[in-house]
Prior knowledge:
This protein is α+β, with helices and mostly antiparallel strands. It contains 11 helices and 8 strands.
Amino acid sequence: MKTEVNEAIQGYLDNGFIYISVNYRLVATRYWYDGPGGTPLEEEFINAAEDGTLTLDPSRVLSDYQPHVGRTEYNTKCSFDAAQMLEEVIANADALKIDVNKIATTGSSAGGGEIHYLTWVYHALSVNGVPNAQRYTPVAMVYTNAQLDYPVQNMLDKGWSHWVEALGANTPLSTALSFEDCHIVMGNPWCEDAFVEHMSSRLHEFPLPMSQCNVEWQTATMERYCNDEEAFNSATLGEVMNTQRWPMVTEQDRGIATLW
C-alpha cells in the first residue's frame, strides 16, 4: 500500500484522477483483531460460494482450513478485503467526490487477483438485492507482472492447459520448465524444510501462519516430477495437466476456483 505520493501517483493526480491506495491481508500471515473488551480474536473463516460470493463464518477461524495444495487457497481474504474497500468507496462516494461509474483499478502480481475479482466477479453479484452492476462500473484496468493463473507456485491444471493448447499434450514438460525450477513451479516451496526453518527463525516478528502445505500432495508431486531428472524428462505437458488437478468437490473448492 502506498502511503505517500510517488511519481506514478502524481501523474494520476495531475490528470484529474482520485487515487486510493488499498491494502489487504496476506495469505501467508495469520491475523487477529480486537473483540469485545479488547479480547484478541482470530480472523474468521471465509466461505466461498461457487459464484464468488464471500461471507464470514464466525463459527470457525481461517486457520482451521487445511489446504489441498498451498497458500493461494487463502486468497479468499484478499478478495474479501478488496470488496470491503469498494463498499467503503461506494458508501462515501459523494464525500470523496468519486464517480463510482468511472472506476479504474491497478495491481501487480498478486494484486491482479483483487482487481480481477472486483471487475469481473464481484461486479456480477448483488448486495442486499441490488445488482452490483447498478452500483458501480469498472471502466479500466492496469495489471502488471501478470500471472497465467493462480496458484503461481504448485501450478495446477488450468495453468498447464495454456501450454497444452499452445504446444500439444505430448510435448515434453522440459520444453516449458527446467528441472532446476520444478520444485518451485510444480512443487510447493512452502512445504520445504528450508522454508519452515526460515519461518521458525522469525517467530519474534510474527506467529507462524496457518498451514500452507499438503504433505501428501507435495510428496506425490516431488516423487513423480521433481526428485529425479530422468523421471522429469519423461513427463509430458498433458500428463502434468491431468495429474496436477484442482479438486472441484465442495462448494468451497469451486468458489476458490472462481477467485483464481
